[in-house]
Design a protein that fits this description.
The N terminus is likely disordered. A hairpin with a 7-residue loop joins strand 12 and strand 13. The strands form two sheets. Strands 1, 2, 3, 4, 5, 6 and 7 form a seven-stranded mixed β-sheet that branches. The chain has a six-stranded mixed β-sheet with strand order 10-9-11-8-12-13, sandwiched between helices. The longest helix has 16 residues. It folds into two domains: 135 residues, Nucleoside Triphosphate Pyrophosphohydrolase (Alpha-Beta Complex); 164 residues, Rossmann fold. By secondary structure, the chain is α/β, with parallel strands linked by helices. It has ten helices and 13 strands.
Length: 315
């Protein structure tokens, strides 16, 4: 995902979906002031990432707490001011529990919520860019890959340079920038609601995911199988670590090192029957504090990688 351009107005949202009477329905919002029907979305707040914005805006507009799924692309259009507006979208499954806990009440911004079939929504949506995003979601439905989970592959934050460190390499701590990156990651990775956090035992990796662990109340599982030391010694167990996460089929974070990242992405491809290609290098070429989100089918993981999105460091 590219960095924001200052002259554009950025926003994010999601196609929220659930199964009702055996059919997939998507959520549309009836806006009070404009009298239109749209997909829930909103502008990025200062210092906020696009995934954070999508989850926050859905909660604010609909009262629903969701986790992001597959990215659906972006829409671009000119605003009355002449500035370009760029809106990024994801799919987001809405659980029965989330519906039951919704805090929505009609307000000055949103007059009503409505669950519609995809066919109905095409006729209700007020804007063509929204219809194009709905069509992207419909293609996932046709392919049978709406129900997904993600493996979030993270490169640790910026650590003290080897040249200036006199202890064991695995004990190198994060720099001030690395600490800031770890906090930023904690704020954004929660948008996918990971259920497991797996990290190389190196201090720089464990410290990178420590804020996320605290925020989600999920312990960090230290696994030597994805450490740089094991990789350099020819004793890494990337296949074991990745294979287990694919078998479990729940969203998880994998925090590791630059030399190990290509092997992690490669093994995700092999474990899901995805032909290897340029995506391995692209998804693994991460700066410190950056991450890639690899989306897989929850019902049939061996059907291949559904999508990959790569995000830069936020600090």
């Amino acid at each position: 995902m590219t960095r924001a351009v200052e002259t554009a107005v950025y926003a994010a949202g999601a196609v929220c979906w659930r199964v009702i009477d055996g059919k997939i329905h998507i959520l549309v919002v009836h806006r009070t002031v404009y009298g239109d029907v749209t997909i829930p979305k909103g502008k990025v707040d200062p210092g906020e990432s696009l995934p954070q914005t999508a989850v926050r805006e859905i909660a604010e507009e609909t009262g629903l707490q969701v986790a992001l799924g597959v990215p659906l692309g972006e829409s671009r259009y000119a605003m009355p001011s002449g500035r370009e507006k760029v809106v990024h979208y994801w799919a987001a499954e809405v659980s029965d529990r989330a519906v039951q806990r919704s805090t929505f009440r009609p307000n000055a911004e949103i007059a009503a919520l409505e669950w519609l079939t995809i066919k109905q929504a095409r006729g209700y949506l007020s804007y063509e860019p929204d219809v194009a995003i709905l069509d992207a979601f419909a293609r996932l439905v046709d392919q049978g890959v709406t129900n997904t989970f993600a493996l979030l592959v993270v490169r640790h934050g910026k650590a003290v340079d080897k040249g200036g460190w006199q202890g064991e390499d695995a004990a190198r701590p994060l720099t001030a920038r690395g600490v800031a990156q770890s906090v930023a990651l904690s704020n954004v990775l929660g948008a996918w609601a990971p259920k497991r956090i797996v990290s190389s035992p190196a201090v720089r990796c464990v410290s990178t995911v420590a804020p996320l662990s605290a925020a989600l109340d999920i312990p960090v599982k230290r696994d030597e199988g994805i450490s740089q030391q094991a990789w350099e010694d020819g004793e890494s167990e990337v296949r074991r670590v990745v294979g287990k996460r694919v078998r479990v089929g729940k969203t998880a974070v994998l925090c590791s090192h630059n030399p190990v990242l290509p092997a992690i992405i490669r093994e995700i491809g092999l474990a899901t029957g995805t032909p290897l290609g340029g995506y391995v290098e692209d998804a693994a070429s991460l700066e410190t504090g950056a991450y890639s989100v690899v989306h897989l089918s929850a019902s049939n993981p061996s059907s291949g990688i559904v999508a990959i999105e790569t995000h830069p460091s936020l600090a």
